[in-house]
Amino acid sequence: MIDEESRTTVLRRAATYQPPRSWRTWLLGRPLPTADAPHQTIGKKVGLAVFASDALSSTAYATQEMLVVLAGAGAAAFVFSFPISIAIVILLAIVTISYEQTIHAYPNGGGSYIVSYDNLGRTPAMVAGAALLTDYILTVAVSISSGVAQITSAFPDLFPWRVVIAVGLVLFVMVVNLRGVKESGSLFAIPTYFFVVMMFITVGVGLARYLAGTLGVVTDPPEIEMIHEAQAVTFFLLLKAFSSGTSALTGVEAISNGIPAFKEPKSHNAGITLIWMSSILGVLLLTITFLSQQIGAVPSVMETVFSQLARTVYNGTGIMYLLMIAATTVILIMATNTSFADFPRLSALLAGDGFLPRYLAFRGSRLVFSRGIIFLALVAIVLIILFRASVTALIPLYAIGVFLSFTLSQAGMALRWWKTGKVMRGEQVDELHAHATPLHADERWRLKMIVNAVGAFLTSIVALVFAVTKFRDGAWIVLILIPAIVFTFNTIHRHYQGLAKSLSLDSYAAPPGIMRKRVVVPVSGVHQGTLHALRFARSLSNDITAVHVSVDPEQTERVRQKWELWGEGVRLVILDSPFRLLHEPLMDYIASVAEHRQPNEVITVVVPEFVPEHWWQNLLHTQAALTLRFAFRSMPDVVIMDVPYQVSHNNHPQKVST
Amino acid sequence: MIDEESRTTVLRRAATYQPPRSWRTWLLGRPLPTADAPHQTIGKKVGLAVFASDALSSTAYATQEMLVVLAGAGAAAFVFSFPISIAIVILLAIVTISYEQTIHAYPNGGGSYIVSYDNLGRTPAMVAGAALLTDYILTVAVSISSGVAQITSAFPDLFPWRVVIAVGLVLFVMVVNLRGVKESGSLFAIPTYFFVVMMFITVGVGLARYLAGTLGVVTDPPEIEMIHEAQAVTFFLLLKAFSSGTSALTGVEAISNGIPAFKEPKSHNAGITLIWMSSILGVLLLTITFLSQQIGAVPSVMETVFSQLARTVYNGTGIMYLLMIAATTVILIMATNTSFADFPRLSALLAGDGFLPRYLAFRGSRLVFSRGIIFLALVAIVLIILFRASVTALIPLYAIGVFLSFTLSQAGMALRWWKTGKVMRGEQVDELHAHATPLHADERWRLKMIVNAVGAFLTSIVALVFAVTKFRDGAWIVLILIPAIVFTFNTIHRHYQGLAKSLSLDSYAAPPGIMRKRVVVPVSGVHQGTLHALRFARSLSNDITAVHVSVDPEQTERVRQKWELWGEGVRLVILDSPFRLLHEPLMDYIASVAEHRQPNEVITVVVPEFVPEHWWQNLLHTQAALTLRFAFRSMPDVVIMDVPYQVSHNNHPQKVST
Q1: What is the Cα B290 distance to its own chain's centre?
Q2: Could you say which DSSP state residue B567 is in?
Q3: ipTM of the complex
């Protein structure tokens, strides 16, 4: 029963609407009410499992990508891989300390976008946002491609199907995320710790056998792929290998986004988890690189370096080898989950700030940002298809964005400490924007400022080295893409600002009421549908004009005769159309009527519209109402009234069901 | 100036509307007024040029397709090609005499569809229509593919590009036909007569050299393609070769469609032209097959049999060879023109009779049936891509339709003569349908009936032989497709009949006027656009309900507060939406309001709709108006009023430009 017939101003109704069950329910689960949003928090051990998969999984490809570059100077150059990985681990340590400080300053989550917006302003924030979005997409493409490379290393017969498998895996992760992943520990803890344990066993056994002198070299190594003649080992080549190796650092920032998920004291727990994670990452990177070099592993598209290492350590492709490869594959697929959680969350944040379409800020039926998840999956699939699921081909696009966002985040933090110092000295500082996290006094602001500044400086150098050494291999794409995304953010932002201004009621004076209403009814033939529309037109105004566009003289004559009989005296205008166009003369006529109208006169175009019983029958009719609707959108005070006319062969259509 | 303000009933306005120039004008030429439709007629010589290209061009592939089948029993079986072509020429003679009679009985054009509809009824007419549409498409695919095969025979380097070239040629012919081809003689006469003259020179020189004993055999023949082990020469194989050869008869019916284009006496001139055409076709088929066998030509995908023949006759690939190949290529491309003229014409005929969407009966800006032309081109392109532009792969789909339509046409004629006889004896016959061509007395009706009956019998046998022998090679596709098309025709026809019945004013009693109008205004936020819509709503009724779907409590509270201030006392209903759905609760609400309304009460949903300045800005807004519009289409007496609100950053939007 409807009970708001009384003239109260505001009525609130509990929605009785229940979404119907459909194929979506089956695939994605039943819709969740807003009240069901999860509030549980996690400890350090589970936190490591949830947030570390992205960072740790990169050990599966970082060493190989260094070797791919060094192979340009022949296999002898592989000796440089260990010193380079030491440099990478030093960089990792600095980035970790730097992020540790961010975590304590931003207990509610301090992603690069938020820190940049708070401390550096809108443009750096847009750059950070663009860099992060790019990198989330690349994380999905690279991790899945690397996961598939592990599978095809163990089962070479699957190699021709690698693109199909990769696309299938992306779709699988997409569906899982559309259902909504409860970051609830066990789901993540088991595979992550399984991977970490397997990794330590593998490198442990490997080191033990190395010290005992029984490790040997890889048997049947794949053929080394030399594209060019072996070149000399140049400084440029070493920098390029270093750049490829820095892909190991991707994912380190994940914890700083996820602080609110931790148990109290949040920042403390998150910080310790970060240090655990970086330590494991550093140890694994060093040992894997060292062992890979000792066994003479060779980078190849057919078998990953990591597979060669595991095969050599375990003397063949036995059960331990398969367990190690399985653990690696699973963690690589799980690594994409971080992107699937953060990409839509960042998109929603950007949408809320007016840099992306606002509807991206709405949660879908399962409380996740469905549109962002689907968009991420589709773009990653396109990348995987374009780059044939090759990690080596994707790597040059990767990591620039990561290091750009590292740089902005840490530069923002350095500036923040400097402002903290000013505030503590009682000096005036520029106000932060409305939603910014407030500054807190900190005695050690000078030291912290130096740490973040050094971090910002080093990561900016890495970003620059990466851009220069990888420019021709694909980094140029990212260097065009990020400014293009920033430009898009800016354009959207200006649109929303202009819109808000022009919709604002601040200086709004209500216009006078509508004085005259003129109604135009297009008539192609005289039948029940036309008379149905005419009935509506008559309820609107007495000033009605029926308009018929004449293409066929016989048809026009029929319309004219029938109108005399059925037209209820409403005037009929016949427009000759020598070029057999139907809509254009009508629109031209209405435009000329609109041009000569009086102030506060409104033109209503009443369009009869067939609604057939079955959807396919729409194909048998031109959608005149839709065409007219779009044609008149830009004319002020011309409104379109769709009068649907349900054609049914059983019921008499003009009856109202009561 | 608008001058129909006075209350006269009917006003006729000369359309001032001139279509604007655009890229379409450049590509297709300026629009033509209806009055420009051509009325010129053509004589026998030009008529031959216009209508013969389809039939004559099939000599370029008919012999080859016979040899392809015979190759199944080894090269020795090629001796059967000449006897088979004699059988085909006999069939050609019978079909020609049979059509000669049709031409005299149907001076206004007697295509298979018209003759079937007139004499056999609706279902046979639908079958004939389906068969003809299928064959027009295949004619385009086969002729273009064969034309490209001639080109790649002369220039083997182009072979890998054959699909691209074929698609390009179809698009070229499509654009030419969209511009509108004036079947004006010289354009057609030059290449057709050039082809005929070149053909007679080639077979003439070939026969002379054969008689002089200097013809020799083809040098460097392409390798013979044997898919299976050579099998024995069976009767089935000979029938199959015969079926392939009957593709030479495609296009013979073209003149019977085009009789109105001839000079008076139309039927007489058209009939003589038909006999000329068939004679040339028969002579060429026999001589080409004979000579191909003598020189030991071999069917191959790399070089056409016809190219091998021309190369042998002219002792190499000199100027005469190139001229012959060029003439053949050009006539094969021109052959598709018959399809491009007849397919849209038949579609329009079928649309006029209610078997296809009615809008197919409208002529486009250049007076041609543009939609039919584009559809034909697209389907032919799909076929060419699917079958890799291979004539041999397409042939099994071809010719069934042709012979099916031959059979129906001649069976219809036979029945017609029988009725003529009855009428002449003064007996009663079933009335023909409304538009049918009237019967004329003819003393020789018995003889003519026998001729048509024999023709119908023989062509039905050929259609059957074709279906059986080619079934597995692809004929099954057509045997599924034609019934499917007939089913579609029938479904569409029933829809239009039902529609006409339910729209009919014959037993129409005007319903009472609209008594109550209830207005619903969806409100997502309170701003100028909302108030603009409210202003329209107020002009419609006093019974207005604003409805807000609550997803975010803060936003809802803002809406509530602003509505108190700006809502002009209109009641506001707030719908809680725990599943964060926007449209569904609103639609559910309106449906429940509609359910409880009184008779003759109409619900108008006034939907404010943003119209941004630039089209791309639409991507930033959900198209709520469009979604609601489709959702309410099926509800009786619920109308949707789109109130476009033009957002402009410069002009104040609610002002009416006067």
Answers
A1: 37
A2: S
A3: 0.71
Tell me whether residues A502 and B599 touch, CB distance under 8 A: no
Checking if the pLDDT of A127 tops 90, the result is: yes
d(CA A360, CA A350): 9
A15-24 residue pLDDT tens: 555 666 666 6
**Chain A closest-CA separation from residue B464 CA (Å):** 34
Is B31–A579 a contact, with Cβ atoms under 8 angstroms apart?
yes
Residues of chain B with CATH 3.40.50.620: 516-646
Peptide bond into A265 cis (omega under 30): yes
Task: Output the 3-class SS for B173-184.
Answer: HHHHHHHCCCCC
Strand ordering across the sheet containing B601-611:
A10-13, B571-576, B544-550, B516-522, B601-611, B638-646, A638-646, A601-611, A516-522, A544-550, A571-576, B10-13
Q: What does the block give as tokens for A388?
A: 């044939």
Residue B539 forms contact with A (CB below 8 Å): yes
d(CA A252, CA A455): 14
Q: How far is residue B101 from each of residues B70, B117, B259, B410, B429, measured CA to CA in Å?
A: 35, 17, 13, 9, 21
- Model confidence pLDDT, tens digit, residues A532-541: 888 888 888 8
Report yes or no: B558 at the A interface, CB cutoff 8 Å: no
- Contact residues on chain B for A508, CB-CB shorter than 8 A: 528, 531
Residues from chain A that touch B14, judged by Cβ atoms under 8 A, are: 576
Pick the CATH number of B516-646 from 3.40.50.620, 3.40.50.2000, 1.20.1250.20, 3.90.180.10: 3.40.50.620
CATH of domain A40-496: 1.20.1740.10
Tokens representing B219? 């040098």
A541 and chain B in contact, CB less than 8 A: no
Residue A386 CA to residue A382 CA, distance in Å, equals 6
Distance from CA of A636 to the nearest CA of B (A): 6
Give every CB contact of residue A639 below 8 A, 6+ residues apart in sequence: A602, A603, A604, A605, B536, B641, B642, B643, B644
**Chain A stretch 399-438, residues whose beta carbon is closer than 8 A to a beta carbon of chain B:** none
Strand partners, A199: none
Q: The pTM is what?
A: 0.68
Say if B622 is an interface residue toward chain A (CB within 8 Å).
Answer: yes
CB contact under 8 A, B578 and A621: no
> Residue B94, exposed/middle/buried by CB under 10 A (0-12, 13-18, 19+)?
middle
Residue B5 has pLDDT above 60, yes or no: no
For chain B, how many residues are written? 658
For residue A70, give every residue at least 6 positions away whose Cβ sits within 8 Å of its Cβ, in sequence order, or none.
A77, A78, A80, A81, A237, A241
* pLDDT category of residue A1 using cuts at 50, 70 and 90: very low
Is B37 an 8 Å CB contact of chain A? no
Q: Does B644 touch chain A (CB under 8 A)?
A: yes
The reported pLDDT for the residue numbered B654 is 41
Query: Could you say which residues from 438 to 497 on chain A have a Cβ atom under 8 Å away from some Cβ of chain B?
Result: 492, 495-496
Tens digits of per-residue pLDDT, A220-231? 777 765 555 667
The Cα–Cα gap between B175 and B9 comes to 44
Tell me which residue has tokens 């498998």. Answer: A165
- Taking the alpha carbons at both ends of chain A, their separation in whole angstroms is 14
Which residue from B12, B589, B600 is facing A576, i.e. has the nearest CB? B12
CATH 1.20.1740.10 residue ranges for chain B = 40-496
CB contact under 8 A, A528 and B513: no
Instruction: Name the residue of chain A whose CA is nearest to B491's CA.
Output: A617
